[in-house]
Design the sequence.
């Protein structure tokens, strides 16, 4: 039996269950595993699992499922370790339905293993091979949950006016950051959260407080298909694994503006300029694994999105006046990155620093500089 395994998120990897489940599934047939999502990449690297879990492509989970569908495997497993049984089951429902929309047929069984090792862990056979799911639930001491139970308990909802759309976010806790497509747009103040949009712009939160600057950064959004996360992106306290980086013929400087989870495409650069507190925190933590320093433009408006943020040696952090990180970022992009996101006109990070100082001084913005030794 050919088995495709989609591993989602850092928690299933950090817990050790991704490897345990892959080894278990090898008892049933030939297993191939790939990552679905982006934040799990650092966890795969830290656990030295690149030769077991394919992380070469940035794919949303439904696309990873589709690759296995197109490879004509016999069964596909989705491994996840959600914040709660509710968030995990709702996640699986959405991934499975997005996947179905991308295929011409739905003949390959998809089985989700959710929160293994927890009392509320479950196995969900989304479309067939109930016996295999039942066998695994028994062996793993997990509850067998049907798709109908997930829908009835967590998905079914009342209609809303035609001129608004809304999205219920399950399993939240008060005081958590709300991230939509990698941008923090608010904070929860309840265990029930609903995002409301009009004309593809988020206009209100029920169960939380909007962050206007974040909504402005996010802009228009397809609320139904957006990637929404609350709380910390990665909770485990880990020892980062540093990978050796190849030397470039040119000294390459990259520009990253409020899109921390896309930073992997710059893993071959020498320096990455990051705009915004959260983008700087996420990006520096990822780039630390590749020994790449950052030049971060921040304004002290930090929403904690990872438990520990690492920064490579020689990184430089500019803390500008409140609200000026975007202004400085736009000026840096205009002056240094007119055609693309890579600049090869510098020979070292000190030259990058001096050019940014010049740009910020022209804006007449106060700032201070922090150096990472």
Sequence:
């Amino acid at each position: 039996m050919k088995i495709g395994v989609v591993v989602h998120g850092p928690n299933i990897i950090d817990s050790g269950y991704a490897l345990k489940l892959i080894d278990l599934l090898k008892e049933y047939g030939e297993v191939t595993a790939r990552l679905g999502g982006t934040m799990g990449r650092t966890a795969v690297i830290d656990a030295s699992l690149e030769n077991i879990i394919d992380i070469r492509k940035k794919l949303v989970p439904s696309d990873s499922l589709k690759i296995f569908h197109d490879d004509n495997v016999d069964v596909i497993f989705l491994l996840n370790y959600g914040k709660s049984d509710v968030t995990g089951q709702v996640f699986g429902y959405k991934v499975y339905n997005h996947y179905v929309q991308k295929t011409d047929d739905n003949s390959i069984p998809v089985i989700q293993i959710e929160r293994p090792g927890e009392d509320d862990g479950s196995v969900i056979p989304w479309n067939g091979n109930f016996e295999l799911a039942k066998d695994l639930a028994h062996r793993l001491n997990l509850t067998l949950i049907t798709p109908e139970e997930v829908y009835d308990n967590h998905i079914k909802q009342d209609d809303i006016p035609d001129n608004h759309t809304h999205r219920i976010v399950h399993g939240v806790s008060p005081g958590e950051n709300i991230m939509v497509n990698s941008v923090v747009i608010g904070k929860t103040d309840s265990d029930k959260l609903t995002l409301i949009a009009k004309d593809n712009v988020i206009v209100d939160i029920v169960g939380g407080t909007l962050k206007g600057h974040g909504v402005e950064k996010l802009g228009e959004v397809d609320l139904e298909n957006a990637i929404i996360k609350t709380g910390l992106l990665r909770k485990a306290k880990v020892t980062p694994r540093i990978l050796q980086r190849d030397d470039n013929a040119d000294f390459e400087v990259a520009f990253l503006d409020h899109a921390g989870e896309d930073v992997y495409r710059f893993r071959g650069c020498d320096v990455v300029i990051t705009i915004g507190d959260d983008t700087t925190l996420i990006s520096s933590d990822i780039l630390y694994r590749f020994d790449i320093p950052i030049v971060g433009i921040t304004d002290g408006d930090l929403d904690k999105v990872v438990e520990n943020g690492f920064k490579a040696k020689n990184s430089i952090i500019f803390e500008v006046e409140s609200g000026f990180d975007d202004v400085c970022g736009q000026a840096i992009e205009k002056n240094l990155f007119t055609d693309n996101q890579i600049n090869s006109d510098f020979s070292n990070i000190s030259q990058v620093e001096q050019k940014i100082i010049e740009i910020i001084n022209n804006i007449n913005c106060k700032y201070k500089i922090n150096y990472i030794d």
About this structure: Residues 85-101 form the longest helix (17 residues). The longest strand covers residues 2-8. The chain has three domains: 2-153, 158-230, 253-371. Residues 237 and 335 are 39 Å apart (CA to CA).
